[in-house]
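Troubleshooting: if your tokenizer reports a length mismatch, compare your output against this known-good record of 454 residues.
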Amino acid sequence: MGDPMGGWSLTVALSTMVLKARVRTRRPQRTRREQKKERDQERKRISALERERDLKRERGQKKRDGELNSNESTNVGERTESSGSVSEEDLSKGVRRRMEMERKRERTVLGSSEREAEEKEMDRDVVVHVRADLFVNGRSWERIHSALSTSGPLKLQCRYLRVEEISVPSISILLDLLPRRGLLGVDIRYSSLGVAGLAELLPLLSTFPALKSLRLHYCNLDFRRVHPSQSEALGELSQGLARLQELRHLSLTALRLPGQLRVLLSSLPQPLEILELPYLSLSPADFAYLSCSHHTSTLQQLDISENRLDENTLPSIRRLLSQASGSLQHLSLSGCGLTDGLLGLLLPSLGGCRGLKSLALALNPLSMAGLMDLVKMAVRMPSLRQLLYPNPLEDYQPGLPDLPSSAQLLDWPLDETLDINLTSNKLNRVLIDNGRSDIFLTCDLLNYDKDMVA
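Known-good structure output:
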């Protein structure tokens, strides 16, 4: 499967295409601007002539009125003439006042509609709107910035934005250039946002009314350390997330937020459908909140990999699976420290998820007996199509600790003297005996892809 957030090379190629199209049509665009300027000047000239003509007409009318009173006495005539002069001066002032008011009205109208006119002017030359998923990093930022801010026959728009190793100010500039109604998702990776940076970006993200997906991966957020302003910072993040009215997919990877899940997720106005929380050092309090939150009954995809489970957290996980059993389709519990005993307690709850299509349990310290129990449960799940299982402890070389971590299971070498297909053959025999050849079993963590399930 390709990267759903778009490839870097494709993004650069699209940006280059937009810029080249602008260069080829730059002269016609300049000509149209000159023509518009000439039309505006002509309208102003005609308006000035009309105002001058009105002034002369009113002065002529006053002169004729003075001639009609020529038979009056000299004193009366002088008084009339003097009065007429004052009236003519007042008349001139009135005309000038009206001219000034008209100019002010013109400036007001132009000021209020200037932004709208600029937007229409930019879109006037657009022949094709190029809607794409953009992948931006430090090497491509300048080119993509130019392509987004240019006007021409091709206009670059963004459906999903993925940025890597880019500062908060640069991300903010990109967001300002994107059309507000086209952006559906944002993926920020390996950028040192910090709490302050994320709090700065969230209000910008709230201006995109169709934003449904937010992913933050390795963005240097760590609440394990005690800071005096920690509560205030969490409050700002919670308020920022509360403004994302249409958010349905939230992915937080390695942000280190133990005990703070309630503060972040309870502010979301809509229940989530996809929640990914790997490497978050979740605490028992976090799992307890998650098991009874307003998101649980709508979850279609849940990833809590690399958060260690034990006897204290298992009741919350069972309650969570029970609440999500009607909607959950994809579940990942890889690297959670599940032993044969813990898995045995969890199997009834897993079996109750009748709509589950994929289940990932890699890097858990299970024996061959535990794997057999897992597959026997899997064949009774009617919707299950993929099962990622761990290598059994018996397949590793001697010396592995009794309760190895996921990192130890990943690095420890397998016993090359054993038949590498022996485990796979035993597990697949269970599928065949139960008529479930439609389930794909694999221990290949690197090539596992839940999205391959229809």
